């Protein structure tokens, strides 16, 4: 919810911009950290969700590590001050340049996604006289029951090593003097709201851990990824149920003495902390459709155009007055530049302020300058 003070502050600012509630962010981080600490679980923040500088500083300060999927993210994590010993590097297509960067920085671990990648990391580490710590990212073929475009753990997905390739992985690990196997890694998808899915994942993690142990490999780390979702329909129910999330893994994982359990959470930590604030440029009322045209578009928030994602949309100026149905659209020269169709809103007018909620994850980071748009700005609660 936005206070009258917030709305008055927004009215004096140039739109569009992302508004970050840093107090909510801190509360979310503290809640997650406390829940993880009960089980001595390790949390790495998935930097792809949001790499706003103030957001990263808050996450680093709470003691989380960083989960990176590019050399640029590895560099950003180190620049921000994340402990190199808590940085993991995943990604199905790591370039030689990116691998060399991570080797030079002595990060904690590479999450390796193919047999060929193992070979490449071993060769590059040998040239530097180093030993690279690696975890094998396994595709467990677990259905996350989420949107098709953001599932990652099925046989049809490009991510991870399929089970039938594991014997070859084991051979490569034994033959590679410059690799140190530390554990196994999984990530089955994003925006997962059915926690029972994670019980199925635990069963598969236990099976694969046994597979490696039976072949003489010590599995020090069980990295179960992330993917915990948020409630886009009720953004004021703001902090996810971290307690039950972590309890599932405590209850269903077969955790051996000395074994570490690692998580890679992104959206759940930052998703509710930001809203996209925009102004109405024009209202077009027709016989079949009414349109509210905002000054923010798919260049500022790509998710609805990319995979029809839902975000709650609110007219901050008009409150709870009689409603009309509008298509809420942006100014970009694309028909897919639409935030929502047939959305009930108060009768809207040029200059009204709109908020598109739950935009803290995969919002600012996916913004573009298509149509030569201005770079999106950020405003913070501490400035209000």
From TrEMBL:
<feature type="binding site">
    <location>
        <position position="362"/>
    </location>
    <ligand>
        <name>substrate</name>
    </ligand>
</feature>
<dbReference type="GO" id="GO:0009089">
    <property type="term" value="P:lysine biosynthetic process via diaminopimelate"/>
</dbReference>
<keyword id="KW-0210">Decarboxylase</keyword>
<comment type="pathway">
    <text>Amino-acid biosynthesis; L-lysine biosynthesis via DAP pathway; L-lysine from DL-2,6-diaminopimelate: step 1/1.</text>
</comment>
<feature type="active site" description="Proton donor">
    <location>
        <position position="333"/>
    </location>
</feature>
<feature type="binding site">
    <location>
        <position position="334"/>
    </location>
    <ligand>
        <name>substrate</name>
    </ligand>
</feature>
<feature type="binding site">
    <location>
        <position position="307"/>
    </location>
    <ligand>
        <name>substrate</name>
    </ligand>
</feature>
<dbReference type="InterPro" id="IPR022657">
    <property type="entry name" value="De-COase2_CS"/>
</dbReference>
<feature type="modified residue" description="N6-(pyridoxal phosphate)lysine">
    <location>
        <position position="48"/>
    </location>
</feature>
<dbReference type="InterPro" id="IPR002986">
    <property type="entry name" value="DAP_deCOOHase_LysA"/>
</dbReference>
<keyword id="KW-0457">Lysine biosynthesis</keyword>
<dbReference type="Pfam" id="PF02784">
    <property type="entry name" value="Orn_Arg_deC_N"/>
</dbReference>
<comment type="similarity">
    <text>Belongs to the Orn/Lys/Arg decarboxylase class-II family. LysA subfamily.</text>
</comment>
<dbReference type="InterPro" id="IPR022644">
    <property type="entry name" value="De-COase2_N"/>
</dbReference>
<dbReference type="InterPro" id="IPR000183">
    <property type="entry name" value="Orn/DAP/Arg_de-COase"/>
</dbReference>
<feature type="domain" description="Orn/DAP/Arg decarboxylase 2 N-terminal">
    <location>
        <begin position="35"/>
        <end position="270"/>
    </location>
</feature>
<dbReference type="InterPro" id="IPR009006">
    <property type="entry name" value="Ala_racemase/Decarboxylase_C"/>
</dbReference>
<protein>
    <recommendedName>
        <fullName>Diaminopimelate decarboxylase</fullName>
        <ecNumber>4.1.1.20</ecNumber>
    </recommendedName>
</protein>
<feature type="binding site">
    <location>
        <position position="362"/>
    </location>
    <ligand>
        <name>pyridoxal 5'-phosphate</name>
    </ligand>
</feature>
<dbReference type="InterPro" id="IPR022643">
    <property type="entry name" value="De-COase2_C"/>
</dbReference>
<comment type="subunit">
    <text>Homodimer.</text>
</comment>
<comment type="function">
    <text>Specifically catalyzes the decarboxylation of meso-diaminopimelate (meso-DAP) to L-lysine.</text>
</comment>
<keyword id="KW-0663">Pyridoxal phosphate</keyword>
<feature type="binding site">
    <location>
        <begin position="264"/>
        <end position="267"/>
    </location>
    <ligand>
        <name>pyridoxal 5'-phosphate</name>
    </ligand>
</feature>
<dbReference type="InterPro" id="IPR022653">
    <property type="entry name" value="De-COase2_pyr-phos_BS"/>
</dbReference>
<dbReference type="GO" id="GO:0030170">
    <property type="term" value="F:pyridoxal phosphate binding"/>
</dbReference>
<dbReference type="GO" id="GO:0008836">
    <property type="term" value="F:diaminopimelate decarboxylase activity"/>
</dbReference>
<dbReference type="Pfam" id="PF00278">
    <property type="entry name" value="Orn_DAP_Arg_deC"/>
</dbReference>
<feature type="binding site">
    <location>
        <position position="267"/>
    </location>
    <ligand>
        <name>substrate</name>
    </ligand>
</feature>
<keyword id="KW-0028">Amino-acid biosynthesis</keyword>
<dbReference type="InterPro" id="IPR029066">
    <property type="entry name" value="PLP-binding_barrel"/>
</dbReference>
<keyword id="KW-0456">Lyase</keyword>
<feature type="binding site">
    <location>
        <position position="227"/>
    </location>
    <ligand>
        <name>pyridoxal 5'-phosphate</name>
    </ligand>
</feature>
<feature type="domain" description="Orn/DAP/Arg decarboxylase 2 C-terminal">
    <location>
        <begin position="18"/>
        <end position="360"/>
    </location>
</feature>
<feature type="binding site">
    <location>
        <position position="303"/>
    </location>
    <ligand>
        <name>substrate</name>
    </ligand>
</feature>
